[in-house]
Design brief:
The chain is an alpha/beta fold. The protein contains 18 helices and 13 strands. The chain binds guanosine-5'-diphosphate.
């Protein structure tokens, strides 16, 4: 359905005047209905029976149904004139009372005005983008801002919506442009049979370009190795509870969740085996996963559950490996450790925390023996990790029993989000989409540096591709597909 909708949007885009409820649905003090397009002001005139108010001046007006003249609401109205508006078009905002019937009445009235139609999902923002009011990363930032649930998420989204990423990528792009100019000079030099440009000058141009590239690669590398900070802030740090069946993973999840009044939800499609809870830890976003017991399951459904559990472990930032402190079962430990072994050896690998649960059943001095048994059961490749991992005691029977675990996780999440210095520096990469392009750009530039004798034409070609990759992040190339995905997530009225 994406293609026809795109075609429809394109066909309708420019001339249509669109309207939608831009505030949330439900009972509220105020609801904001937004109208954008050439007929915005005339539509306002239709509903109020008066000349539209001065631009950017709030005025109280009676809104009436165009057909019957029935009074619908007394509303505060605002008018913006193209191009100085969010969409870059003429815009009218109706700040009505927030009741359902009022909103429905006003929307219906707008529908009755000829030339107006209801907005598509994200269409206001799409118009803002088309008008050059927002860049691609700014649109993404705006989308993130609407979804932000914690202060760190808000901070990052606001910076991105305000152009922080755009600026960073533009500065990288401008470095590449200057490198390309030097590379072009080298290509010309190669063609220059008269030899106006001396060999010495040629190698100087290459040296200068290399030093610029070196500095840029350094920055790209720093952005790529920031511990996935930007993505983690957007999506939450992924913490997985793993371990043998009956170690108490689900109970721990519940205890942690209750403590933080989290929202428990099933991951669509994985209802049976992976449970996901979003909970802020110290004001930071965190997603906690409970997995099916990791063991060699014989029946098919259980095997599928274990496979999914492994996938979750592989994509996680922190693995909490839960053991029953009161019971040593080397076979069960070994099977569960075997299952997380791959993820723990990956690069970058998640942090490992061992949680000894059911501490209400044993004395504290049983812990060293429990850890030793676990290390013995561990596959050789991860035994050192298991031996060195922090060990946290817990009991999931009450809130106090998980306090130490919660504090440990909080500290870990905080460490991941810690900002360098006092100044907030927006991460350069906040989505996998950005990461892919930056990674490709870096690889291309490294290929140039690796070969000082690379043909100038090939240097120029690598630089062009690298520039395109950074361009794709800010929407300078290939944006349609990205936009379709992005706007599908937007709400109507945004
Ligand atoms: P999971 O299979 O790892 O998710 O384990 P569950 O959370 O389902 O717990 C398995 C069993 O251990 C249940 O009967 C729980 O009531 C019990 N259990 C879990 N945590 C504790 C604990 O801290 N202390 C005690 N005594 N029992 C626990």
């Amino acid at each position: 359905t994406a293609a026809p909708r795109r075609a429809r949007l394109r066909a309708l885009r420019a001339e249509d005047t669109i309207y939608a409820l831009s505030s949330g649905r439900g009972v509220a003090g105020v609801a904001v209905v937004r109208v954008s397009g050439p007929l915005a002001a005339p539509a306002l005139e239709r509903l109020t029976g008066k000349k539209p108010p001065e631009v950017r001046r709030a005025s109280l007006r009676s809104l009436r149904a165009p057909g019957t003249g029935e009074l619908l609401d007394e509303a505060l109205v605002l008018r913006f004139e193209a191009p100085k508006s969010f969409t870059g078009e003429d815009v009218v905002e109706l700040h009505c009372h927030g009741g359902r019937a009022t909103v429905d009445g006003v929307l219906e009235a707008l529908d009755g005005v000829e030339g107006l139609r209801a907005a598509e999902r994200g269409e206001f923002t799409r118009r803002a983008y088309a008008a050059g009011k927002l860049g691609l990363t700014e649109v993404e930032g705006l989308a993130d801002l609407l979804m932000a649930t914690t202060p760190t998420q808000r901070r990052q989204a606001l910076a991105q919506a305000g152009g922080a990423l755009e600026k960073r990528y533009e500065s990288w792009r401008s470095t590449l442009r200057s490198c390309r100019a030097r590379a072009e000079a080298l290509v010309d030099f190669g063609d220059d049979v008269e030899g106006d440009l001396s060999a010495e000058e040629g190698s100087k141009a290459r040296t200068e370009m290399d030093s610029q590239l070196n500095a840029l690669i350094g920055e790209l590398r720093r952005a790529l190795t920031d511990g996935y900070r930007g993505e983690a802030i957007r999506e939450g740090v992924r913490v997985v509870l793993a371990g043998a069946p009956n170690a108490g993973k689900s109970s721990l999840l519940n205890a942690l969740a209750q403590r933080d009044a989290a929202i428990i939800s099933d991951v669509p499609g994985t209802t049976r085996d992976v449970l996901e809870v979003s909970l802020p830890l110290g004001g930071l976003p965190c997603v906690l996963f409970d997995t099916a017991g990791l063991r060699d399951a014989s029946d098919v459904i259980e095997r599928e559950g274990v496979r999914r559990a492994r996938n979750v472990v592989e994509g996680s930032h922190v693995v909490v490996f839960v053991v029953d402190a009161a019971k040593i079962d080397e076979g069960a430990d070994a099977a569960a450790l075997e299952a997380v072994g791959g993820a723990l050896s990956a690069d970058p690998r998640p942090e490992l925390v061992i949680c000894a649960n059911k501490m209400d059943l044993v004395e504290k001095d049983a812990l060293p023996r429990r850890r030793a048994a676990l290390v013995d059961a561990a596959p050789a490749a991860i035994a050192p990790l298991v031996a060195a991992a922090p060990l946290v005691a817990a009991t999931s029977l009450d809130e106090a029993g998980v306090a130490a675990l919660a504090a440990d996780l909080e500290a870990r999440v905080a460490a991941r989000f810690r900002e360098a210095g006092d100044e907030y520096e927006a991460p350069a990469i906040t989505r996998e989409r950005h990461r892919g392009h930056v990674e490709r750009c870096r690889a291309g530039l490294e290929r140039i540096l690796a070969d000082p004798y690379l043909e100038p034409e090939l240097v120029a070609e690598e630089l062009r591709a690298a520039t395109d990759d950074l361009g794709a992040v800010v929407g300078a190339v290939d944006t349609e597909a990205v936009l379709d995905v992005l706007f599908a997530d937007f709400c109507i009225g945004k």
